[in-house]
Amino acid sequence: MSVHRHPIVDDSLGLAAQGYSWFPGRWRRSPDPDVLHTRLMGRHAVGLRGPDAVRFFYDEEHVRRHGALPEPVQGTLFGHGAIHTLDGIDHRNRKLLFMSVLTDPHRVGRLAERAGQAWDSAAAGWVTQPRVILFDETARVLTRAVCDWAGVPLADADLHRTAADLTALVDGFATAGPRHWRARRARGRLERWLARVIEHARTGEPDDSVLDLVARHTGTDGRLLTPERAAVELLNVLRPTVAVSWFVTFAGHALHRWPRLRDRLRDGDLGYAVAFAHELRRFYPFAPFVGGLAVRDLTFQGEHIPRNALVLLDIFGQNHDPRLWPDPYRFDPQRFLDHEPGRDDLIPQGGGDPRAGHRCPGEDVTVALLATLAIRLARLDYEVPDQDLSISLRRIPALPRSRVELNVAGMVA
Ligand code: HEM
C-alpha cells in the first residue's frame, strides 16, 4: 500500500501558506507527472493536469460539483446556490442562460465598446492626477461598463463603492483574514441591492437586457428564481467581468517589463491584441485550480481515485507545463498569433465544452475586454514611478503589490 495512494498528512495548511507554489512543490515530489495524491480539508485529494485530465475531469460521470465548494468560497466568490454548485439538468438549464448572453458576438461587442468608452472618459481625468492606480481605475471602468451593458442602474455616486465591493469578492475568497470578512460584507450589500433590482425589473416590460433575462429565467421546475438566487447569478456576470481588472493590471506589468510589446498594440492590431490577451491569461497567476468530488470509484491513467475524493485540476500548472508550452516562463504573445489555443490545452478559465460542463462561459468577454483595454493602455503616455511591482505567488489571487501606479501624461498620438 503506497503512501501516495493513501495519504495521511493533511496539507490544507501547506496550500494556504504556499498559494500558487503549492501544486509545483507537490508535483516535484510526485512519482507520476500527471496524477498526485494528498489530503485536503480532511479528504483524500487527487491532483490532475494535462489535456487528458481535462477531459476526464469535465466528464459528469466522473466529477460532480454539488457539495464540493467550501462554504467560505460560496460565501464570498460565487454565492450560495450559484451555478458553480449545480450538476446535471439543473446545471444545463442555468448554463444556457449564461451562454446565451455571454457568447453572443453582438452583446460581447457592445460590452467591449462600452468598456472602451468608459476607459476613454476616465483616462481624460487621469492626466490631471499625480498618480493613478491601474487596478482601481480599471475596476471602476469595468463596473461602469458592465452595469450599463447589463441594464443594472448604478448612480455615479455609487460607482467607487460598488467597484470596491465587486473586487473585494474576488480578493477575499482564499484567505481567512480581514480580506475574507470584507468580502462577506461586500457580498451581503451587493446581494441585497441586486435582489431589489431584480424585483423591480419583474414589474416592468421585458427589454432583453441581461438583467431582464436573469430576472425572468425559470428553473427546471418552471418557476422564477427567488430574487436572492437571481441576484447571486446576476452577480456572477458583474463580478467576473470586473475581475478582468486583474488581467489588465497584469497587462500593465507586462508592458513595463517588456516595453517593445507596446508597439503592435499601439498600432491597434486586433489579432495581436487577442494573442496578447491569451498570453496574459496563460502566463499570469489567477485561478489556481478547480475542484469537484469523485462520483464513484474511478481510475485515471491506472491510478485509483476513491468515491468522494476531492479531484483538483491544476490550472496554473497546466498553463506552465513545458510539454504544452515550450519555455513556459517566457511571455510571448507570438504563441497565439495565427494559432487558436487548443480547447483543453489553455485552461485559465477551465476546460472542456462550456455548454456541457462548468468551463467559464465568459472567455469571449474576457478576451474582448482585454484586447480592447490593452490597446488603450499601450496608447497611453505614462511613466511608471518607483514602486514594488513584485507578484507574490503565495497570495491568492495574485497581483503586483503596488497594483501598478501610473503617472499619466496623456494619450500617444
Ligand atoms: C466559471 C475563471 C471571467 C462567468 C469559471 C471557472 C473559472 C473561471 C476557473 C470555473 C470552471 C470550472 O468550475 O470548471 C475566470 C477568469 C476570468 C473569468 C480567470 C477572468 C477574469 C468571467 C466572465 C464571466 C464569467 C467575464 C461573465 C461575464 C463565469 C460563470 C462561471 C464561471 C457564470 C460558472 C460556470 C459553470 O459553473 O458552469 N470562470 N472567469 N467568468 N465563470 Fe469565469
TrEMBL record:
Requisite cofactors: heme
Record's keyword annotation contains Metal-binding: yes
Group of enzyme by EC: oxidoreductase
Pfam families cross-referenced by the UniProt entry: p450
One MF term in the entry's GO annotations: peroxidase activity
InterPro entries for this protein: Cyt_P450, Cyt_P450_B, Cyt_P450_sf
EC number: 1.11.2.4
Keywords: Heme, Iron, Metal-binding, Monooxygenase, Oxidoreductase, Peroxidase
CDD domains: CYP152 (cd11067)
GO aspect biological process, one term: sterol metabolic process
Protein family per UniProt: Belongs to the cytochrome P450 family.
Name of the molecule in the record: Fatty-acid peroxygenase
